[in-house]
Amino acid sequence: MPRTKVWRIAAGVAVLTASALASRQRHETFDVIIRGGTILDGTGAAPVQGDVAILNGRIVAVGAIPATANATRTIDATGATVAPGFIDVHAHAAEGLAGRMADAMPLLAQGVTTVFVNPDGGGPVDLAAQRHAIETKGVGVNVGQFVPQARKSSGWRIGRRPAPSSPAWSTWSTMA
Protein backbone atom coordinates (compact mmCIF):
# COMPACT_ATOMS: atom_id res chain seq x y z
CA MET A 1 0.00 0.00 0.00
CA PRO A 2 1.48 3.39 -0.94
CA ARG A 3 2.60 5.56 1.95
CA THR A 4 0.35 8.52 1.01
CA LYS A 5 -2.72 6.25 1.11
CA VAL A 6 -1.79 5.07 4.64
CA TRP A 7 -1.45 8.69 5.79
CA ARG A 8 -4.83 9.56 4.29
CA ILE A 9 -6.46 6.62 6.05
CA ALA A 10 -4.74 7.55 9.33
CA ALA A 11 -5.85 11.18 8.96
CA GLY A 12 -9.40 10.06 8.21
CA VAL A 13 -9.47 7.82 11.30
CA ALA A 14 -8.09 10.68 13.42
CA VAL A 15 -10.78 13.07 12.16
CA LEU A 16 -13.54 10.51 12.76
CA THR A 17 -12.20 9.75 16.25
CA ALA A 18 -12.01 13.43 17.16
CA SER A 19 -15.50 13.96 15.79
CA ALA A 20 -16.86 11.00 17.77
CA LEU A 21 -15.18 12.22 20.97
CA ALA A 22 -16.53 15.74 20.46
CA SER A 23 -19.99 14.33 19.81
CA ARG A 24 -19.79 12.15 22.92
CA GLN A 25 -18.67 15.13 24.99
CA ARG A 26 -21.71 17.11 23.80
CA HIS A 27 -23.98 14.26 24.84
CA GLU A 28 -22.40 14.12 28.28
CA THR A 29 -23.80 17.50 29.23
CA PHE A 30 -27.31 17.14 30.60
CA ASP A 31 -29.91 19.23 32.36
CA VAL A 32 -30.32 16.71 35.19
CA ILE A 33 -28.49 13.57 36.25
CA ILE A 34 -30.07 11.36 38.90
CA ARG A 35 -27.24 9.25 40.30
CA GLY A 36 -27.09 5.98 42.19
CA GLY A 37 -30.78 5.13 42.49
CA THR A 38 -32.63 1.85 42.24
CA ILE A 39 -34.24 2.17 38.81
CA LEU A 40 -37.67 0.68 38.10
CA ASP A 41 -38.35 1.18 34.40
CA GLY A 42 -42.07 0.39 34.43
CA THR A 43 -41.76 -2.71 32.23
CA GLY A 44 -41.82 -5.24 35.06
CA ALA A 45 -38.09 -5.93 34.70
CA ALA A 46 -35.99 -6.40 37.82
CA PRO A 47 -34.78 -3.15 39.42
CA VAL A 48 -31.21 -2.08 38.65
CA GLN A 49 -28.78 0.32 40.33
CA GLY A 50 -27.83 3.18 38.06
CA ASP A 51 -28.20 6.71 36.83
CA VAL A 52 -30.74 8.58 34.72
CA ALA A 53 -29.86 11.57 32.52
CA ILE A 54 -32.42 14.14 31.36
CA LEU A 55 -31.94 16.62 28.55
CA ASN A 56 -34.59 19.06 27.30
CA GLY A 57 -37.27 17.41 29.43
CA ARG A 58 -36.61 13.91 28.11
CA ILE A 59 -34.81 10.89 29.53
CA VAL A 60 -31.83 10.40 27.22
CA ALA A 61 -29.69 7.88 29.10
CA VAL A 62 -30.25 5.18 31.71
CA GLY A 63 -27.55 3.06 33.29
CA ALA A 64 -23.99 3.90 34.23
CA ILE A 65 -23.47 7.51 33.20
CA PRO A 66 -19.78 8.48 33.33
CA ALA A 67 -18.66 10.47 36.37
CA THR A 68 -17.22 13.02 33.94
CA ALA A 69 -20.68 13.88 32.58
CA ASN A 70 -21.87 17.37 33.46
CA ALA A 71 -25.35 18.51 34.46
CA THR A 72 -27.01 21.71 35.54
CA ARG A 73 -28.47 19.76 38.46
CA THR A 74 -27.32 16.47 39.97
CA ILE A 75 -29.57 14.52 42.33
CA ASP A 76 -28.11 11.90 44.66
CA ALA A 77 -30.66 9.07 44.66
CA THR A 78 -28.60 6.66 46.75
CA GLY A 79 -31.05 4.57 48.77
CA ALA A 80 -34.04 5.89 46.79
CA THR A 81 -36.16 4.43 44.00
CA VAL A 82 -36.23 6.12 40.60
CA ALA A 83 -39.36 5.28 38.61
CA PRO A 84 -41.56 6.70 35.86
CA GLY A 85 -44.49 8.77 37.07
CA PHE A 86 -47.51 6.94 38.42
CA ILE A 87 -51.01 7.36 36.97
CA ASP A 88 -54.00 7.90 39.26
CA VAL A 89 -57.00 6.71 37.27
CA HIS A 90 -59.49 7.58 40.01
CA ALA A 91 -58.67 11.10 41.20
CA HIS A 92 -61.11 13.39 42.96
CA ALA A 93 -58.63 16.20 42.40
CA ALA A 94 -60.27 18.42 39.77
CA GLU A 95 -61.50 21.08 42.16
CA GLY A 96 -58.14 21.34 43.90
CA LEU A 97 -56.20 21.43 40.62
CA ALA A 98 -58.41 24.28 39.42
CA GLY A 99 -57.91 26.10 42.72
CA ARG A 100 -55.22 26.60 45.30
CA MET A 101 -53.52 23.21 44.75
CA ALA A 102 -52.76 23.74 41.05
CA ASP A 103 -49.08 22.97 41.66
CA ALA A 104 -50.20 19.40 42.55
CA MET A 105 -47.41 19.04 45.11
CA PRO A 106 -49.27 16.40 47.20
CA LEU A 107 -49.63 14.27 44.06
CA LEU A 108 -46.08 14.83 42.87
CA ALA A 109 -44.71 13.99 46.34
CA GLN A 110 -46.25 10.54 45.89
CA GLY A 111 -44.81 10.12 42.39
CA VAL A 112 -48.14 10.73 40.64
CA THR A 113 -47.61 12.62 37.38
CA THR A 114 -50.93 11.93 35.63
CA VAL A 115 -54.48 12.02 37.02
CA PHE A 116 -57.88 11.27 35.54
CA VAL A 117 -60.59 13.45 37.05
CA ASN A 118 -64.39 13.05 37.20
CA PRO A 119 -64.43 9.42 38.33
CA ASP A 120 -67.61 7.58 39.31
CA GLY A 121 -69.58 9.27 36.54
CA GLY A 122 -69.48 12.61 38.32
CA GLY A 123 -68.07 15.93 37.25
CA PRO A 124 -69.31 18.95 35.39
CA VAL A 125 -71.22 18.71 32.13
CA ASP A 126 -69.07 21.46 30.60
CA LEU A 127 -65.71 19.69 30.29
CA ALA A 128 -64.25 22.57 28.26
CA ALA A 129 -64.89 24.98 31.15
CA GLN A 130 -63.35 22.52 33.62
CA ARG A 131 -60.28 22.10 31.40
CA HIS A 132 -59.93 25.87 31.04
CA ALA A 133 -60.17 26.35 34.83
CA ILE A 134 -57.44 23.75 35.40
CA GLU A 135 -55.14 25.00 32.63
CA THR A 136 -55.49 28.65 33.69
CA LYS A 137 -53.72 27.90 36.97
CA GLY A 138 -50.80 26.13 35.26
CA VAL A 139 -51.41 22.68 36.70
CA GLY A 140 -48.37 20.64 37.87
CA VAL A 141 -49.47 17.23 36.53
CA ASN A 142 -50.95 15.77 33.36
CA VAL A 143 -54.76 15.70 33.54
CA GLY A 144 -57.25 13.53 31.66
CA GLN A 145 -61.00 14.00 32.00
CA PHE A 146 -63.64 11.29 32.19
CA VAL A 147 -67.01 12.21 30.71
CA PRO A 148 -69.90 12.21 33.22
CA GLN A 149 -72.38 9.36 32.85
CA ALA A 150 -75.49 11.52 32.99
CA ARG A 151 -76.43 15.19 32.98
CA LYS A 152 -76.90 16.17 36.59
CA SER A 153 -78.79 19.27 35.51
CA SER A 154 -81.58 17.09 34.08
CA GLY A 155 -82.42 15.65 37.48
CA TRP A 156 -81.74 12.09 36.27
CA ARG A 157 -79.26 10.03 38.23
CA ILE A 158 -78.06 6.54 37.44
CA GLY A 159 -80.05 3.93 39.37
CA ARG A 160 -82.81 6.34 40.40
CA ARG A 161 -86.11 6.82 38.61
CA PRO A 162 -86.85 10.50 37.92
CA ALA A 163 -90.13 12.04 39.02
CA PRO A 164 -92.80 12.29 36.28
CA SER A 165 -92.60 16.09 36.60
CA SER A 166 -88.84 16.05 35.87
CA PRO A 167 -87.53 16.99 32.39
CA ALA A 168 -85.65 13.66 32.49
CA TRP A 169 -88.92 11.66 32.71
CA SER A 170 -89.43 11.50 28.93
CA THR A 171 -85.86 10.24 28.41
CA TRP A 172 -86.10 7.73 31.24
CA SER A 173 -89.53 6.43 30.29
CA THR A 174 -88.42 5.67 26.71
CA MET A 175 -85.39 3.75 28.03
CA ALA A 176 -87.26 1.79 30.73
In a nutshell, what does this entry contain?
The protein contains 5 helices and 8 strands, in the order αββββββααβαβα. The chain is α/β, with parallel strands linked by helices. The chain has 2 domains: 28-84, Roll (Urease, subunit C, domain 1), CATH 2.30.40.10; 86-161, no CATH class.
Q: N-to-C SSE series? A: HEEEEEEHHEHEH
Radius of gyration: 27 Å
How many strand segments?
A: 8
Distance between the termini: 93 Å
Secondary-structure content class: alpha/beta
Domains, number: 2
Low-confidence stretches: 5-26
Strand content: 25-35%
Number of helices: 5
Helical proportion, percent range: 25-40%
Descriptive overview:
With 176 residues, the protein is α/β, with parallel strands linked by helices. The chain folds into 2 domains: 28-84, Urease, subunit C, domain 1; 86-161, no CATH class. It has 5 helices and 8 strands; from the N terminus they run H-E-E-E-E-E-E-H-H-E-H-E-H. Strands 1, 2, 3, 4 and 5 form a 5-stranded mixed beta sheet that branches. The longest helix is centred in the first third of the chain and has 25 residues, at 3-27. The chain is elongated, with a radius of gyration of 27 Å. The N and C termini lie far apart (93 Å).
Tell me the layout of helices and strands:
Elements lengths: L2 H25 L1 E11 L8 E8 L2 E6 L6 E7 L4 E2 L3 E6 L2 H4 L7 H4 L3 E6 L9 H10 L5 E4 L23 H7 L1
Parallel strand pairs: 1-4, 1-5, 6-7, 7-8
Antiparallel strand pairs: 1-2, 2-3
